[in-house]
Write a structure and sequence with these properties.
The complex is a heterodimer of chains A (431) and B (399).
Chain A: H1 3-19, H2 21-32, H3 36-65, H4 70-73, E1 81-89, E2 92-96, H5 102-115, E3 119-123, H6 130-142, E4 149-151, H7 156-165, E5 171-175, H8 178-190, E6 195-199, E7 205-208, H9 214-226, E8 238-242, H10 246-258, H11 278-293, E9 297-300, E10 315-318, H12 325-328, E11 335-341, H13 344-352, E12 359-363, H14 367-376, E13 381-384, E14 403-404, H15 411-414, E15 417-425
Parallel strand pairs in A: 2-3, 2-5, 3-4, 5-6, 7-8, 7-12, 8-11, 10-11, 12-13
Antiparallel strand pairs in A: 1-15, 6-14, 9-10
Helix pairs in contact in A: 1-3, 1-6, 2-3, 3-5, 9-10
Chain B: H1 3-19, H2 21-32, H3 36-55, E1 65-66, E2 74-75, E3 83-87, H4 93-106, E4 110-114, H5 121-133, E5 140-142, H6 147-155, E6 162-166, H7 169-181, E7 186-190, E8 196-199, H8 205-217, E9 229-233, H9 237-250, H10 269-284, E10 288-291, E11 306-309, H11 316-319, E12 326-332, H12 335-343, E13 350-354, H13 358-367, E14 372-375, E15 394-395
Classes of the chains: A alpha/beta (431), B alpha/beta (399).
Organism (chain A): Priapulus caudatus (Priapulid worm)
Domain Aldehyde dehydrogenase (chain A): 1-422
Pfam families (chain A): Aldedh
Chain lengths: 431, 399
């Protein structure tokens, strides 16, 4: 199939996702529990953009990349040769996606892989397979040839492991926990050295200086942590507040947390739905307990909300120090940690003292502070005076144990191409 | 340090390697056994070329500004990965030391390099040149040792951010596992191969025979890209075999410091035994041994230049990487058949075709699953052209 035709199919898929927007958003909320308002306005909006904007754009990059010849890319070999690179598809891509943003994660995986000419075997999270299956149907309706996109629902240890260990799968792309990411990397080494890309967990530092716009910092920090019931790999879960502003920030954050409305995610007033399941609920409650026993100050929340469903009260801990479990382990729930800092050197050391490296943010009006933090924190994405700003064109991925490889933007294509260098002897070169 | 300053240091390193080329090439021949003329003209010519090429890159590593939606300014920074653990093989020791050190430094990383235990000498000398070039203390570190001890220490270290390894596929797999067991360090691997050369009846026969011969026997067959499966089309098969055997018989073997010698010894006893064992398997499995087949002389690990004809795809000599002076010449009929057979391997490092027909050339270039593909040539490369494997020949591309 010509590359340009792939673009046509992807555009058609975007049309179909938009046509079925209400249905998909509802199905997502039913399966995942996230507020319908968020499903519709955020998940679906960005999903459609990935299929409509970024994948055709990536397709165009692909076509340009494949035009690189000796002249343009100056693969200047010594001797009489014409040398060029081809950016070929990797082949069969196993893709394993998580339950926190099912549709969106599916688009981040399908889009670039298809743009680069690969075929896909996708395993959605067992907790939330429904929207992935509907979109699979839409790909058939869009006209993708049978066999190109395959969705196989199942559990990690069975279906996921089968993909990671398969001798004929050329690549596996995984978004999920660091623990499973490690298992997948090992599986690659034990089987056929399939290419691996991983988007894993985080314990992202959010730095608030005393000169920040306090209202903005409080609001963005609140959303940066509590969005999606705290179930975001890049949640700003270690909030370092400069000494001078600490007390005010803590008080205002607690007030803000108390305003959150919990309830039926189909209710348009709801801010926070339930956690995804009992396993996560128990894990979060256990970590909240550890915060209490290890001596952090719990200022609001801390318990189950109501007596039906896995709802957890928005919880805020202050006086958190760096060796508490709530400051080190990924909670993946509505639990905020606020710690105090004084001085840049101390900040760099503490912010970087983690095996994670997914995201970071800084709130300040000072140019120097903003740039020094952006440069000094080892994280794949740094936000300045904002949080969770995603775009189909901006690459996203982790440093260190938060993963490797970047998704979205042009960088996302590199994960799905295999470079072949072709060198042809010519009688005599003239440049 | 400014990016441009890194470039100056790498340029200086290139100058020093060039200054000491005679010494380095001699030391390499002493340690490895490869003919001196090749140490000098290939290993160190390439090493200098790689240093000069990457010396130009540091201040050209640029990020992007990205026009995202909303009132935001978005840009990417291309940062160094950090501490790179590099593990190099014994077949081109000094050359690979440069191939690993120089791009890492160009990108702003620091390096801890473990040279092959069989051949540490030139790498240690290059480390001394790094110091003389003015590369700051602590940036380039060479730790000689064994794979199981020094190598594993690097691959399992929680503070090493990346491993760059060139060597066998077996060890490459262990390194990938080690990354998963420890800190998910980034891994790039350059591994083995069983690279197919396809010679069509319309090829320039002399050229095809000579190039295939040279690129199998070079470095005593100890090349990851060795042309170790030579598929020759029916009509010219017998003549191709005859001319290849001629060349093999004429190939001089002896003291690698002696001007005319083409082949020195294999690297050590273990490799020597392995190569002879595979030659035995060729005989047992029914290939026709046209020449060579045993030890050369009675001192040192020298092996006669060996040619097998009537080789079929299921023989061990057609499937396993031999890493010795043993050529397999295999018959084929049609283009579709040879493409299937060429790709029927878990390796995917290189491939080549000899033909005058543009359609055959480009069809093969597109269809053979390998990271590098040559048309009417072999092993033509430069630091500017990316090199690496498909499938189990590796992950990632080097210059």
């Amino acid at each position: 199939m010509d590359a340009s035709n792939r673009g046509v199919l992807l555009n058609r898929l975007a049309d179909l996702v938009e046509r079925d927007r209400v249905y998909l958003a509802s199905l997502e909320t039913l399966d995942n529990g996230k507020p319908y308002t968020a499903s519709y306005a955020l998940d679906l909006a960005l999903t459609a953009k990935v299929y409509r904007l970024i994948t055709p754009l990536q397709l165009e990059f692909m076509q340009r990349l494949n035009c690189k010849t000796a002249k343009e890319q100056s693969l200047a070999l010594q001797g009489d040769f014409l040398c060029f690179t081809r950016h070929e598809p990797v082949g069969v891509c196993g893709q394993i996606i998580p339950w926190n943003f099912p549709l969106l994660m599916q688009s981040w995986k399908l889009g670039p892989a298809l743009a680069a000419g690969n075929t896909i075997v996708m395993k959605p999270a067992e907790q939330t397979p429904l929207t992935a299956l509907h979109v699979a149907q839409l790909t058939a309706e869009a006209g993708f040839p049978p066999g190109v996109i395959n969705v196989v629902p199942g559990d990690g240890p069975t279906a996921g492991a089968a993909l990671a260990a398969h001798m004929d799968v050329d690549k596996v792309a995984f978004t999920g926990s660091t623990e499973v990411g490690s298992i997948i990397q090992k599986a690659s080494g034990e089987s056929n050295l399939k290419r691996v890309t991983l988007e894993l967990g985080g314990k992202s530092p959010n730095v608030v200086f005393a000169d920040a716009d306090m209202a903005q910092a409080v609001e963005m920090s609140h959303l940066g942590l509590f969005f999606n019931q705290g179930q975001c790999c890049c949640a700003g879960t270690r909030i370092f507040v400069e000494g001078k502003a600490y007390d005010e920030f803590v008080e205002r954050s607690v007030q803000r947390a108390k305003l959150s409305k919990l309830g039926d995610p189909f209710n348009m007033e709801t801010d926070q739905g339930p956690q995804i399941d009992e396993v996560q609920f128990d894990k979060i409650m256990e970590l909240i307990e550890s915060g209490r026993t290890e001596g952090a100050t719990m200022l609001t929340g801390g318990s189950r909300h109501g007596d039906r469903g896995f709802f957890i009260q928005p919880t805020v801990f202050a006086d958190v120090n760096d060796d508490m479990r709530i400051a080190k382990e990924e909670i993946f729930g509505p639990v905020m940690q606020i710690m105090r800092f004084d001085g840049m050197d101390e900040l760099y050391e503490r912010a970087n003292k983690t095996q994670y490296g997914l995201a970071a943010s800084v709130f300040t009006k000072d140019l120097d502070k903003a740039l020094m933090v952006a440069q000094g924190i080892r994280a794949g994405t740094v936000w300045v005076n904002c949080y969770d700003k995603f775009d189909a064109a901006a690459p996203f991925g982790g440093y260190k144990m938060s993963g490797f490889g970047r998704e979205l933007g042009e960088y996302g294509l590199h994960l799905y191409t295999e470079v072949k260098t072709v060198t042809i002897k010519v009688p005599q070169k003239n440049s | 340090m400014d990016a441009s300053a890194r470039g100056h240091l790498l340029s200086k390193l290139a100058d020093l390697i060039e200054r000491d080329m005679v010494y380095l090439a001699s030391l390499e021949t002493l340690d490895n056994g490869k003919p001196y003329k090749y140490s000098y003209n290939i290993d160190y010519a390439r090493a200098v070329g790689t240093c000069r090429y990457y010396a130009g890159w540091p201040d050209k590593i640029v990020g992007k500004t990205i026009p995202i939606e909303g009132d935001f300014f978005c840009f990417t920074r291309v940062e160094p990965i950090g501490v790179v653990g590099a593990i190099t093989p014994w077949n081109f020791p000094g050359m690979f030391a440069c191939h690993k050190i120089v791009p890492a430094l160009a990108a702003g990383c620091t390096v801890v390099l473990k040279p092959a235990e069989q051949t540490p000498l030139t790498t240690l000398y290059i480390a001394a040149l790094c110091k003389e070039a003015g590369i700051p203390a602590g940036v380039v570190n060479v730790v000689p040792g064994y794979g199981l001890t020094a190598g594993s220490a690097l691959t399992e270290h929680m503070d090493v951010n990346k491993i760059s390894f060139t060597g066998s596929t077996g060890v490459g797999k262990q390194i990938q596992c080690a990354s998963g067991k420890t800190n998910l360090k980034r891994v790039s691997l350059e591994l083995g191969g069983k690279s197919p050369t396809i010679v069509f009846a319309d090829a320039d026969l002399d050229e095809a025979v000579l190039v295939s011969h040279k690129n199998l026997f070079a470095n005593m067959g100890q090349c990851c890209t060795a042309a170790s499966r030579t598929y020759v089309q029916d009509g010219i098969y017998d003549e191709f075999v005859r001319r290849s055997v001629d060349l093999a018989k004429k190939r001089s073997i002896g003291d690698p410091f002696c001007g005319d010698v083409e082949n020195g010894p294999q690297i050590n006893r273990a490799q020597f035994d392995k190569v002879l064992e595979l030659i035995e398997s060729g005989k047992k499995q029914g290939a026709k041994m046209e020449c060579g087949g045993g030890r050369h002389g009675n001192k040192g690990y020298f092996i006669q230049s060996t040619v097998f004809s009537n080789v079929t795809d299921d023989m061990r000599i057609a499937k396993e990487e031999i890493f010795g002076p043993v050529q397999q010449i295999i018959k084929f009929n049609s283009i579709d058949e040879v493409i299937k057979r060429a790709n029927n391997t878990t390796y995917g490092l290189a491939g080549a075709v000899f033909t005058k027909d543009i359609n055959k050339a480009l069809t093969l270039a597109q269809s053979v699953q390998s990271g590098t593909f040559w048309v009417n040539c072999y092993n033509a490369g430069s630091p500017a052209s990316p090199f690496g494997g498909f499938k189990m020949s590796g992950i990632g591309r080097e210059g």
